[in-house]
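[job 4471] stage=fold_predict status=RUNNING
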Amino acid sequence: MATRIEFAAPAAALRSPRRWINGPWVDFLTLGGGSFVVLGALAAFFPRDDASRAALAGAMLLLAHFVNHPHFAHSYQLFYRDFVRKAFSDESPLAARYRFAGIMIPALLAAFFAIALSQGTAALLGLAANVMFFTVGWHYAKQGYGILMLDAARKGVRFPETARRWLLGNTHLVWFTWWLVANDALRAKQLWGIEYYLLDVPEAVLIPMAALAAMSTAVTAWRLTAACRAAGALPVNGLVAYAAAAYVWLFVGRLDPILLVVVPFFHSLQYMAVVWRYQSNVETDRRDDGDRTGWRRWVRSTPFGLARFAVAGGILGAAGFWGAPLAADALGGYDRAVFGTAAFLFVAWTFINIHHYFIDNVIWRRGNPEMARHLFRAAGRRSYGGYPGP
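[job 4471] inference complete, writing structure tokens
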């Protein structure tokens, strides 16, 4: 059952109401609309020769350094900032969840990877890739739902409880159908030289699930249309985000493997559009509450604080995805005949992706007072029925 949360927005929010996250066109392009433009262009001019495909993959890998990897780092910055208070204070409403996601999950993941590497079992290590792709699809779909709830709240569209349940249930069903489709044959795959196996899902399961997802989509669209008509407003960018995450991004990778390096960019861009708005509001509130004279005014300015946050995310992302694992691989410490030469790259990428799901499940959860204060600041004193994210 969704709960209604009352909160008093900070004074800065009351002075500056915002119906957009970052502006109408910026929201459209970053929350999902940009992916329709780019994927449409690729559909018309898709590279066929190996050189062009390699160039596209290289370009997306380069962009990952500035968008994909920092988006993971930003979730760590938000989650572990003031972690002791959030995880151990009696006044923290999500303390148990912070401890579970921030301490228990990384400890369990570290123990799993240590056992897999020490046992010299590539098949055991490969299970992490299965878990990663399971949580990644779930995370994509739930993020799209959360963006829709955020955009609707800013536009003053109040979805009734039944509509929210259909929207959330539908995104779960579409995600699970995608996961089954992605596992439609038992076959080996590789990530950084580590082999893992997909499941063998028979058509007797796939066809009914696809039909059920289609029916759920139709009913959800009907409920959504009725809710928007009653509200007299349409959260267009939120709907674009929902459709892109639940339908386009999850399934487009089935068309060509090269698209698997394109889609994560848009998911990360969608995430960063919200995170940067959130952090910008945090920096603004710090500026309003602090000393605003002399050099401190410049250091405490919102652009400077946001730039510092973004640069730190870029450094942490590069270190987590490349620097630390490449250094560990150079030192060795595992059976290269079994795991190849990039085992720690595999460990780092799967660890971060899996852990990212769990920490986002806390950060963006309904009931997080920080989200109420710094993100839902569009209309002063309001009650909202949903937060972005799981």
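[job 4471] summary: DSSP finds 16 helices and four strands in the chain.
[job 4471] exit 0
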